[in-house]
Model the fold of this input.
Amino acid sequence: MADVVRHFPAERVPHELEGPRPLARLVEDAEPFPVHALGPLASAAEAIAEHTRAPIAICAQAVLGAVALIGQAHADVVLPTGQAKPTSLFLVTIAGSGERKSAVDRLGLQAVYDHEQQLRDGHKRDMSEYEIKKAVWTAERERSQAELRQAKKKQRLEQCGAEADLRALGAEPLPPLTPILVCPDPTFEGYFRLTAEGHPALGLFSAEGGSFIGGYGMSADQKLKTAASVSSVWDGEPLKRVRAGDGSRVLAGRRLSLHLMAQPDVADLMLNDDLLINQGLLSRVLAVAPASTAGTRFFAPPSEAAKEGLRRYCGRIEKMLQVPIPLRPNTRNELEPRRLHLSSEAMDIWIRKHDYIEELLAPNAELSLIPGLANKAPEHAARLAAVMTLYTDISATHIDGETLANACELMRHYLNENLRLKASAHFNPDLRLAGRVWEWIQRQWEEPAIYPAAIYNDCTIREVRERQKALRIIRILQDHNYLSRVGEGMRINGSIRREAWLIHGRILK
Done:
């Protein structure tokens, strides 16, 4: 993962020589997504891109997410440390309105959606059979219980026969599994119930990621619980729920992959959330924010090669879905994935990349800015390699060196994207808030200078209604040369203000 790009300026021009600096600091565009490093999935991503004219990074995320959804049920990847980790992926794609996110999602998951429809059709038939079996079982149970009560009253030997009939009846029939593989915005309770009563390997996928990011599961009082639960299932830990009313329950052998597509402002709510950063969920997320293709998407029918590439991809996904998933004996929906090992060549590559990343985590080194993701980067690379391997062969037992090297190149891109996004003012809430306050000053404030009370009392932006917050925003505007402190105060609005800042760069009306 060489050449991790530095995105932060080393030195600044002396403050007094600068003009106003943009609050929404422009950062370099995203690097081109290394689509060739997708290996066997490259043609699928390119085919979807040609059909939709969407950025190739969105298409790459879509195919990686779809394959991870299926492959996670079949295999865990064994790291050189000896730990077996799920092959699940958590992906976030940041793109504005009109970037064809829904079209990409539909093509990337089309075979999965078709398979779900088949499951629903089978579920209707199975439910009819289940209801008959349950009715027969209930009637037999009630008859045997009645006979047992009568036998106990008469203290007759028939009691033993009635007890034997109840035991022979067996457990109550179970309903067929819920026919859902993909859900867009579950609460933790909803997800827990779905994975308890349905398929053990699910996907949280949405082309409108705001439905999850802004939904109940990520609300202020639910966010920590949801993040902790989602993180634990990414780690492969059993799901646990304890309730005073209905007792406790543990669900082992569950897997979850995630791909949320969200507009920048919505993604900001998640990617810049201190709680999610500190809790660790975001270190498990691979995010991209590609440049828009708007203005270049002139109509052209997809080529025959693109049509064939999409057909091959959908056919391969369909075949993967037909392979029975490995279950723990005597269970109907508890996974027992096999172990997917690194070849000796792949292991050597993994160790070298692991040590290189460790060097870049030193204080003041490039990756010290994103320690959470960087520390998990080697594991992410192994998971990416596993996903590409399973797409080629769902029964594979080893990951080869070339695939692991490609995965490391993909991971280098994700690290650079994370650095770029961290450098961007778009993901700094105080800078963005300062921009809104500056806009208010331009439009609503007519005096040549401003003071804190004018902001926390008069500004229409509720986030700056406290003195300390207002002062912090003023200092940001001062640091960017939009304001300069008046040392001895000045008269503003007919009163002497001890704390005052002159306004620079005002737009002339």
The longest helix spans residues 110-154.
